[in-house]
Amino acid sequence: MNTLQKVLIALSIGSLMSVSAQAALNYAGQPYAGVKIGQYSPDDAEDDAFSYGVYGGYKFTPEFGLEAEYLTTSDTDAFEDSFEKSEYNADVYGLYATYDYAFPNTAVYAKGRLGVAKNEIDVDYTDKLDASENESFSMSDTGVAGGLGLGYNVSPMASVEVMYNVYPTIDFDDGEDLDANGVTLGAHFKF
User: Fold this and answer.
1) What pLDDT digit, counting tens, does each position of 33-81 carry?
2) Domain extents for the chain?
3) Among residues 65, 143, 136, which one has the least CA distance to residue 98?
4) How far apart (Å, rounded) are the C-alpha atoms in residues 98 and 92?
């Protein structure tokens, strides 16, 4: 190999590295959308609810992004005995800032998110002895919410992630409050 060929190869490799560096600096962003399932767990409820929903977001850089979600649950028993019964279902609407940390040389990443969400719970109370005492009511609160999780890039265009979520506390008029959290498994596609 003569000197001219060596110089051309060195210039070509240098040009490719420069283009790669410029592409990293000029990250155009990446939208994504997906679905999730999981478990919604309010304090003092007899059973946890099955949750499901949709989420989507936009990655401004490989690390930072913005994500929105809608999560709903099945009707689930909160309490039941011989005389009375109560059931609940919940809806969560959230908007979060996200941070992803990609573990070097793997397809695994850690994800954190922090933002604001509305946590709404609908309750149906049934008095088994006196139907006139039956009632339905709704409680909600908007506040800080967030989560931590792990993800896996199945391909450059698809990922799955498991996340532990903390939802806003619902404050009652009598000074009591209701905390709720959950675990979700999501899958999303990048565009």
Assistant:
1) 999 999 999 988 889 999 999 999 999 999 999 999 999 999 999 888 8
2) 29-190
3) 65
4) 17
Residue located via tokens 């977001």: 57
CATH T-level topology, domain 29-190: Porin (2.40.160)
> 149: which 2 tokens?
């999780």
Amino acid letter for position 129: L
Q: How far apart are CA 125 and CA 50, in angstroms?
A: 20
DSSP-assigned states of every residue in 35-103: EEEEEEEETT-SSPEEEEEEEEEEESSSSEEEEEEEEEE--EEEEE-SSEEEEEEEEEEEEEEEEEEEP
pTM of the model: 0.80
Q: Residue 80 corresponds to which tokens in the numbers above? A: 């039941």
Q: Could you report the per-residue pLDDT of 123-140, keeping only the tens digit for each?
A: 999 998 888 889 998 999
